[in-house]
Design goal:
The chain is an alpha+beta fold. It has one domain: Trna Endonuclease, Chain: A, domain 1 (3-Layer(aba) Sandwich). It has helices at residues 4-25, 31-44, 90-103, 118-121, 128-131; strands at 49-54, 57-59, 62-64, 69-74, 78-83, 107-112, 123-126. The strands form 2 sheets. A 5-stranded mixed beta sheet has the order 1-4-5-6-7, with helices on both faces. A two-stranded antiparallel sheet has the order 2-3. Strand 5, helix 3 (90-103) and strand 6 form a beta-alpha-beta unit. It is globular.
């Protein structure tokens, strides 16, 4: 059963592995490199990871054929959106929140690898699906 505690702990563990990847590689690489390395670390640690998952978009009861993809979906409940840019923008927050809404997932992590400290640049997001979860 999905709980707030489980989702929060999972996000904590994902963050720890992102920090490990960042410590090994450092800043300055392409987002795709960090994505592959983080996926590897997550799977190595027993997590179920879907990479570059297509996000379905429903418009007036029709599923639109659009190429909307999220970076990583971990254990079917936390969406991880990776960046390797100088500064994340409000549009990146909105993108992640939209993925969470469309897929009905309770937590999202926006992780920017172009930093000296992942913890400072990481942005966690929760939504109404998280708030409805039991403790």
């Amino acid at each position: 059963m999905l709980t707030k505690k489980y989702v929060t702990q999972l996000s904590y563990e994902i963050t720890g592995l992102a920090i490990k990847v960042h410590k090994v590689l450092g800043p300055g690489l392409l987002e795709s490199v960090y994505e592959k390395c983080l996926k590897y670390e997550l799977e190595l640690n027993g997590f179920n990871v879907i990479q570059q998952m297509i996000v379905p978009v429903q418009y007036e009861n029709i599923e639109m054929d659009v190429d909307l993809r999220l970076d990583l979906l971990v254990n079917d409940c936390v969406i991880v959106e990776l960046k390797a840019i100088e500064n994340t923008l409000p549009v990146h927050d909105a993108q992640l929140l939209t993925y969470m809404k469309l897929l009905k997932k309770p937590q999202g992590l926006l992780i920017n690898f172009f930093t000296d400290n992942i913890t400072k640049s990481l942005k966690p997001f929760v939504n109404e699906y998280f708030r409805k979860l039991p403790e």
